Amino acid sequence: MTFSPWAEYCLMQHDPSVARVLVLLASAAACGFAPHAEAAPPGDIDRYVAQAMQTFGAPGMSVAIVEDGKTTLARGFGVRDIRSGKPVDEHTAFPIGSETKAFTAACLAILVDQHKLSWDDRVVDRLPGFRMYDPYATAQMTVRDLLTHRSGLGLGEGDLMFLPSTNRSRADMLHALRYLKPATGFRESFAYDNILYVVAGLLVETVSGQSWESFVTEHVLAPAGMRDAHPTYDAAAANAVALHARTAGPIRGTGAQGVLARGLDAVATAPAGGINASAADLAQWMRLQLDGGRAADGTRIFSAQQAAEMWSPVVVVPGTELALPAGMEAMRPDLQDYALGWFVESYHGHLLVEHAGGVLGGVSMLYLIPDAHVGLAVDINSEDAGARRAVMFHLLDHYLGLPPTDWIAIIRRAQDASIAKAEALLKALPNPRIENGAGPSLAPADYAGTYRDPWYGAMTISLPQNGRLRIRFDRSPGMEGELSAVSGNAFRTNWTDPTIENATVAFSVRNGRVYGATMKAVSPLADFSWDYQDLAFQKDGG
């Protein structure tokens, strides 16, 4: 049996944490699933990309492919901005979203190599002010725990601290962390989060004495040869894309394509999802990963030991987390774990290391096939994720020697069915104009006031002279709008910014007085980061 250089290193170290991956490798070899590395990208790549972009409506796309340490494709397709029509090229920087998490893990790996940190150091000993809601989690959480989504927090819990924008600093988010109530026990199960990667970025700053932006640029982006990359989105950058979304329809993702007035304000949350990079950049990043921490020019950025550590599975991703829409089941991995900033999975008997990303107006996907020494990256400057996924799985079919599949048609059918179902659910909701329902139980002025959630902060409900209640999230600039009564003490938001997911606001009333409010996203397809359900507002004086 033959192992990849990474697996061979793990075997030599007798590292029990990688036993699960080695079992996958052995099973793949025993079943005859040898990775099928072609000598060149698929011959139909230009045609397939064009078809995917046209089918799903993505304005621009970048594709990078690395094979055996060489960049065999780094190319741009379409336009950066539907208004200007400027073309995408191999140096156009796209937001890579949560793919950034692997860069933050790499920063910590470098500090481990420098003997300034250990993966098993307790965070509370290294980061002043760190505190979880659960005292046990506070006392026991390690650096490794920060990166592996097993803290006990719920899916996306706390994301409204920065979505869609924020006036908080990273230190503010660290302080708010102590008020996020856990959904499960510490280290009990997997639930994806962003907020602890912000904490990981603060840890980089505390240990290194540099800002996260400065450290990742100096120690990762620059030595890796990622010359187009920048640590946060900058719409004014010469090589930047505009961010696009469909917000005119009844559900986000439907209606005409438009340019977002602003993207996700990722300055404070950059360690979780802020990096922007070009196809040329991502080719260099994938070469670095596949060569165990060594850049294309031979520069050692992090050790082979830390390369292995970052790909070593830590927590099993439950099968319920891997559900896909009907018709797309063939894309589901056989099993999946989370390591340090990476998903590690078995797909049709092949070992893959991957991560996807998404911000408002852009999505990305990056897959590594370690034993074939192949890396694949696809990015688009819109939320039309079907285009990204179809191209990625077309490439995986090619490099894994799998039968070709019409992923474009499969994903399109699944997407249309999902949207139709969501639209039907929306139509069944009570009409916010209460044409046939009971009106509010109290006078509009009774709902006005300041409401506070322990982790989010203040929300203001006001009653202007026009008599229409308004809502404002005080720590999220631009997150404001009107409230429309649904029935009883339930209202629905109508945000001024149409890119913000609307929510139902249910006011809590006791003895004729409002004392609090809870919320829930209206759309069944709302991204998990719109975590309205985690809010529990109490009214001042209520």
3D architecture notes:
This protein has 542 residues and is an alpha+beta fold. The protein has 2 domains: 5-318 and 330-420, DD-peptidase/beta-lactamase superfamily (Beta-lactamase), CATH 3.40.710; 444-539, Lipocalin (Beta Barrel), CATH 2.40.128.600. Helix content is 29%, strand content 21%. It is built from 16 helices and 20 strands. The chain has helices spanning 5-13, 19-30, 45-56, 100-113, 123-126, 135-140, 143-146, 170-176, 195-208, 212-221, 270-273, 279-290, 304-310, 385-400, 407-427, 444-447, and strands at residues 60-67, 70-78, 94-95, 244-246, 257-259, 276-277, 315-316, 335-338, 343-347, 350-359, 362-369, 374-380, 449-453, 457-462, 470-473, 480-487, 490-495, 503-510, 513-521, 537-539. The strands form 4 sheets. Strands 2-1-12-11-10-9-8-7 form an 8-stranded antiparallel beta sheet, with helices on both faces. Strands 13-14-15-16-17-18-19-20 form an 8-stranded antiparallel barrel. Strands 3-6 form a two-stranded antiparallel ribbon. Strand 17 and strand 18 form a beta hairpin. Helix 4 (100-113) packs across helix 10 (212-221). The radius of gyration is 24 Å and the shape is globular. The termini are far apart. The model is unreliable at 1-38 (pLDDT under 50).
